[in-house]
Design goal:
- The chain is α+β, with helices and mostly antiparallel strands.
- The protein has 2 domains: 82 residues, no CATH class; 131 residues, Protein Transport Mog1p, Chain A (3-Layer(aba) Sandwich).
- It is built from 2 helices and 17 strands.
- Strands 9, 10, 11, 12, 13, 14, 15 and 16 form an 8-stranded antiparallel β-sheet that branches. Strands 5-2-1-7 form a 4-stranded mixed β-sheet, with no helix packed on it. It has a 3-stranded mixed β-sheet with strand order 3-4-6, with no helix packed on it.
- β1 and β2 form a beta hairpin.
- This is DUF4367 domain-containing protein.
- Keywords: Signal.
- It comes from Streptomyces kaniharaensis.
């Protein structure tokens, strides 16, 4: 029979082995739970301090877990990507959801090259320090991390699809909502791209001016309305869209537009 001291030593060894086995199992489970790289093709915002990356994701909540943003860092580069969520239940159907997700880097992005990890292709994120200040929102509207699924192509090719990023022309879209009224978005593109012709199937309203700059009002139906213009620094598009509610009036869109100020 082992001595008390030897029994203690054996118990200690067993505890270490058990802990190591448990740790390995946890790591394996974590690896199994982490979905495959989904590809990062959406708009990307880098915070003013350079530490946080943010991007919109879209998924089906009743079928899978929310995707997550991650990044691999070196002293010269940052490679970012999305991990697809685990499959939860494929027997049910529900509407897709959109939401902003973020990842905090170990160090500010700075001059390091940012690329999409799955392809290695570099891209330019939108710098949050360049976002225009919003001086006015219609009563009740507040910023939301949800990306409304109703947004389509009402404003034509000059309103970037948040899930289809340009690698060389950075853009960012902010969303605002309130109960019982249409969703509102403000898209800003760098560098200024200039006004465009109305999209096919839409018609231009009366000419408008935003802080002395020519603006184009694009209307599709009473539930869709967009105002776009360039101030020589950025190109902006303010969109109001909701099939269930009347779009914001041209005067309300113009008031939002007039309140935007570049930093």
């Amino acid at each position: 029979m082992p001595s008390p001291g030897r029994r203690k030593a054996l118990l200690a060894v067993c505890a270490v082995v058990a802990f190591a086995a448990l740790s390995a199992a946890v790591r394996y489970a974590a690896d199994r739970e982490t979905g495959a790289d989904a590809g990062l093709f959406s708009q990307v915002l880098v915070s003013a301090d350079g530490r946080t990356l943010t991007t919109p994701v879209m998924w089906t909540p009743c079928q899978e877990a929310e995707p997550r943003l991650f990044a691999r860092e070196t002293s010269q580069a940052v490679a970012a990507d999305l991990k697809a969520g685990n499959t939860v239940d494929l027997t049910h159907e529900c509407p897709s959801a959109g939401r902003l997700v973020s990842f905090t880097l170990h160090a500010p992005l700075g001059t390091r090259q940012l690329s999409e990890a799955n392809t290695g292709k570099p891209f330019v994120p939108f710098p949050a320090a360049r976002l225009a200040d919003v001086g006015y929102l219609p009563p009740g509207f507040t910023a939301t991390p949800d990306v409304p699924m109703v947004f389509g192509s009402v404003a034509g090719p000059w309103t970037p699809n948040p899930y289809n990023r340009s690698d060389t022309v950075p853009s960012w879209t902010r969303y605002y909502a309130t109960a019982g009224r249409p969703a509102l978005s403000i898209t800003q593109v760098l560098p200024a791209a200039g006004a465009q012709d109305p999209a096919s199937g839409t018609h231009a309203g009366a000419p408008m001016s935003v802080n002395g700059h020519n603006a184009s009002l694009v209307c599709d139906t009473d539930s869709e309305r967009a105002l776009t213009w360039s101030d020589g620094v950025s190109t902006f598009t303010v969109v109001s869209f909701d099939p269930q509610h009347a779009a914001l009036s041209p005067d309300e869109l113009l008031r939002v537009a007039d309140s935007l100020r570049n930093p």
